[in-house]
């Protein structure tokens, strides 16, 4: 398997520290050596590449921003570069690491008790334990504040009832971070696999993120101990803080996916001969596509690095993250389409990574806040006016319409 040389039109490498380049190169080699040889098969068969989990743990790819429990405490840019390289391999693999790190280890670390941290962080860091994050419900995606899952305090226990949908790693998880409504608002809970009343099953028929497991979770009078609550959670905003961490990584990941489809299309266009013995790269229409891709990738790389520098300076706002996620995933989606065109018929077979990235990016475009919802978050930041709910009608509606309460994502 040949080594990926990188995509760096604007010499953005010079903006990275030696440590950041080293982290990037380590994950880049892991993706070339371990991920690329097996990923098409896993995607085809709809299987998560679980054999890679301990290897990713050994490379400290889970919880890499945490600096306790022997974890490396990497800065924002180094963490982002991990996500970029993993998503160059596969969006499903990057999703696995995002969920484990940002949606499970982060909330346990930030909002958990000492006992919860000591129990779960070391096992999640090695990959000995797998986690999932249950927020979305069948009727509440962009508007999680409307959730119906409840947690009721009964004696010395919490009793959970409700269901969660579209949960990455749901059936694989040893531990689920679940968000539920209590008398005091939304709180996070740690629910262990095997707890009576807790069920999970896989969602089938997915044509996107096939190398990632997506599941439904059910809670039917599921009794968990009083200390299963994440004690420092106070509301939905804590769930949104987790999503902000994950979306930051996705902003980097999108560029990783775009780098892979661009590089594949570039190499292909130089080799593929049509008309008078000329490679298709010699045609202006093909060059225009490549020029568009490299321009947008370069802009996305600069955006990601600035987000990382803001993160490390503690100045990163959630609307900055929205811009990164929205722009870079859109760039990845457009690059996948253009690369697919350049590859002609070979663009639709998995001998090349393009069609897999093209299908994967559809999930990434929708999850962790859809493209449009991030547009509304940016719109609110610049105008000061939230526009998630429909505007009030001037005339009284025939029937009162309840608008669901809660922050959008
Ligand atoms: C593969 C995959 C993995 C996932 N993993 C997880 C996970 O691990 N944990 C988890 O909790 N969730 C997960 N999700 C769920 C994901 O976060 C939701 O799908 C996402 O939030 C969008 O919700 P929805 O699909 O219900 O779409 P909807 O909210 O129904 O939106 C449908 C469309 O309406 C638009 N729309 C909605 N509201 C507005 C508005 N106010 N203004 C304008 N347009 C609007 C949206 O932009 C979108 O185009 C996953 C999803 C996928 C596909």
Could you characterize the architecture of this molecule?
- The chain is α+β, with helices and mostly antiparallel strands and 409 residues long.
- The protein has helices at residues 18-45, 52-58, 76-89, 91-111, 114-126, 236-271, 284-312, 318-342, 354-366, 371-383, and strands at residues 131-134, 150-154, 157-168, 175-182, 185-192, 198-202, 214-225.
- It has a 4-stranded antiparallel β-sheet with strand order 2-3-7-6, with helices on one face. Strands 1-4-5 form a 3-stranded mixed β-sheet, with helices on one face.
- Helix 3 crosses helix 6, helix 6 runs antiparallel to helix 9 (354-366) and helix 8 runs antiparallel to helix 10 (371-383).
- The longest helix has 36 residues, at 236-271.
- The radius of gyration is 22 Å and the shape is globular.
- Residues 99, 133-136, 141-142, 166-168, 209, 214, 363, 366-368, 370, 372-373, 376, 388 line the site of flavin-adenine dinucleotide (FAD).
What is shown here, in short?
The protein is an alpha+beta fold. The chain contains ten helices and seven strands. The strands form two sheets. The protein has a four-stranded antiparallel sheet with strand order 2-3-7-6, with helices on one face. A three-stranded mixed sheet has the order 1-4-5, with helices on one face.
